[in-house]
Amino acid sequence: MTFEELYAKVKRSTADDLTNERIYNLIIDETVGNPTGHSLCEFELYARAKELKEDE
What CA–CA distance (Å, rounded) separates 54 from 15? Predict the structure, then answer.
């Protein structure tokens, strides 16, 4: 999954979804094997997802 795809998934989420562990784990699972080879650690990824949601 590209960052753009993650962005789209996060934009469709609610704030409650982002704090839901299952949604968080889904995002982590789907970004494993990032084709750019740049792997974000889980905390960075979660922080970026929260920032995207807050920017709405």
Answer: 9
The better pLDDT of the pair 33, 11 is held by: 11
CA atoms within 13 A on the CB side of 33: 3
pTM of the full structure: 0.32
How many Cβ atoms are within 10 Å of 50's Cβ, its own excluded?
15
Report the distance separating Cα 21 and Cα 34, nearest Å. 21
- Domain spans, the chain: 3-54
Q: Using an 8 Å Cβ cutoff, are 18 and 24 in contact?
A: yes
* Cα–Cα distance, 26 to 6 (Å, whole number): 11
Asked if residue 49 lies in contact with residue 10, where contact means CB atoms within 8 angstroms, the answer is yes
